[in-house]
Amino acid sequence: MTLFLARAVLGLVLSLNASLVGCGPALQVAFEKVAPIPEGRGMLYIYQDPLDPYSDRIDIQINGKDVSTLRPRGYFSYVVNPGEVTLAGTKKFSMISGPSITLDVNAGQVRYVKLYRDWGRVRSSDDGSKRGWYHLVEIPVLRAEKEIIECRLVPVL
Q: Over 70: is that where the pLDDT of 124 sits?
């Protein structure tokens, strides 16, 4: 009986701990602009739609290199050399639609790219749930700066 009680208490403590701190790394660092941008370089901010807290984790590639995994309400910044920069989202059994996005970034320039889910095009997943298709789109600075403040920093690989 005491072994059962000890296991029940341990299970309760672990459940409470998981519900309070979440599972996996917590996204706690609020949005901060990187300042100053390194001389002769450009800055990209890539973020996931903050109005979609149940979105999937999507791996982001920049110029073919895996750089981060965007989590729901997550963002990261990435310093790039001037010129064409190609971003793509990947995921096993991917729901990223359309071609990747290519930006022409100038030195000193800041660009914002949002990963969002299009519920106008819904597909059924393997488990029968409905899923929207994901898109990467460039967002105008004024709009992006209002949206990204709801996001939290994710690690860059």
A: no
